[in-house]
Amino acid sequence: MFPTADESLLVTATDRSIELVNAAAQAAADRLAHDIIAYDVSDVLSITDAFLLASAPNDRQVKSIVDEIEERLNKELGAKPVRREGDREARWVLLDYVDIVVHVQHSEERVFYALERLWKDCPELPLPEDAVKTRGKAEEHARLTGAEGGDLGAGTDGELR
Question: CA-to-CA distance for 71 and 49, rounded, in angstroms?
Answer without folding.
Answer: 21
